Amino acid sequence: MVLLGALQSVTEPLLELNRDAVSQGELWRLLTGHWIHYGPYHLAMNLGAFMLCGWILFQDISLRHYGPLLLTCLLGVGIGIQWFNTDLDYYAGLSGALHGLLVAGVIITFKQTPWMSGLALAVVAYKIVQEQWPGYDTSHELLPVPVAVDAHLYGAVIGLVWGVGVFLWRTWRSRHV
Predict the structure, then answer these.
(1) Which Gene3D superfamilies does the entry link to (predicted)?
(2) Of 7, 8, 29, 157, which sees the most CB atoms within 10 A?
């Protein structure tokens, strides 16, 4: 992501989620748009959160499971933006998928840290509801574009489904092994 950020003038037009380009068949943008960012602050914020989510998740799941979770979050957010946010012509950033990783992670690790996981879920839920509230200001003084808050919602829903699925599977398996 740092290399893509250093080459932003080249990578942004080639990789960002561009509604018209995706509609014309450039489907890779549903994935690649997450790896580029609108400026160094956006990149640093998302890179730090990505590393934190990885650290949390790698405590409890393997790379073999983390990869599909990440891919599902990336694709789900990209498809959600493309299908449901017709007013959004461009999208870049990892925050939507990060919300998915975070929600899945706290649900998956719920048995180990129930109070911390419950608190984290409550904070994320509050944040998502607040962002969806009419009149919420999506501008951010350090970002050159408004925050795409619906990406956070899509990611959180995907993470919720994934996390609950893993939690239920592990619970069922522990009772039947």
Answers:
(1) Rhomboid-like
(2) 29
Query: Within 13 Å, how many C-alpha atoms sit on residue 86's CB side?
Result: 1
pLDDT by residue for the chain (177 residues), tens only, comes to 888 877 888 888 899 999 999 999 999 999 999 999 888 888 899 999 999 888 877 777 777 888 999 999 999 999 999 999 999 999 999 999 999 999 998 898 888 889 999 999 999 999 999 999 999 999 988 788 889 999 999 999 999 999 999 889 888 988 987
Query: In sequence order, what DSSP letters do the residues of 86-114 get, joined into one string?
Result: TT--EE--SHHHHHHHHHHHHHHTTTTSH
Q: Which residues have CB under 8 Å from 160's CB, separation 6+?
A: 103, 104, 107
H/E/C letters for each residue in 31-87?
HHCCCCCCCHHHHHHHHHHHHHHHHHHHCCCCHHHHHHHHHHHHHHHHHHHHHHCCC
Domain that holds residue 31: 2-175
| CATH number of the domain encompassing residue 158 | 1.20.1540.10
Q: Output the pTM of the full model.
A: 0.91
For residue 151, give both structure tokens.
Answer: 């990406």
Distance CA 104, CA 40 (A): 27
